[in-house]
Amino acid sequence: MKEVLKRSISSFLISAVWGAFMNLIIEVVVRMVTGMEDFTPLSPEYIAMFPSESIAVEVNILLYGVIGAAFSFMTFIYEKVEIGFILQNLIYFILTGIVWFPIVVFIWQLNRYPQAFYGTLSGFIATYVIMTVVGYKITKKEIDTINLYLGQN
Question: Which of 87, 85, 127, 81 is nearest to 104 (CA)?
């Protein structure tokens, strides 16, 4: 569990930095391409929750960190080998979804902006696909190792 907590803290930091960096890139590119000088990658409803736009941006960075930490922390489920890979994936999807879905819908309120909402959902789906593929390869390698060991005895 100590290792999971270390990974979660590391993932929090990495996700916060990358979230801020990606929003910066989005904002700069959109402003350059469209000429919209007042564009922000944050929804107006989200910004309205805070006394200033800078506080909204800072909290947004922390929210990216929370999401990253959750994705990392919930990997503990893959250590529960007795429940099987498919059930592990389902539980991982549910547990991480409990964290990111309320942030996306109720805090960021991206559901009001279909293009942003579906783009964000696509990012999460891609993350789940990557997790499933990596997890499958690790599981397959472990099974092959066990079978090789059993074949030698």
Answer: 127
The sign one gets for the Cα dihedral 44, 50, 51, 55 is negative
- pLDDT (tens digit per residue) in 31-78: 999 999 999 999 999 999 999 999 999 999 999 999 999 999 999 998
For the record, the structure tokens of 51 come out as 């006394």
pLDDT in tens, 62-74: 999 999 999 999 9
- Written as six digits, the tokens of 136 are 């499958």
Complete DSSP assignment for 56-79: HHHHHHHHHHHHHHHHHHGGGGGG
DSSP of 93-106, one letter per residue?
HHHHHHHHHHIIII
pLDDT at residue 85 above 80?
yes
Quote the tokens at residue 14: 């990495």
Which residues have C-beta within 8 Å of that of residue 30, sequence separation ≥ 6?
36, 39, 41
Q: What's the one-letter identity of residue 70?
A: A
Here the tokens at position 142 are: 């472990």
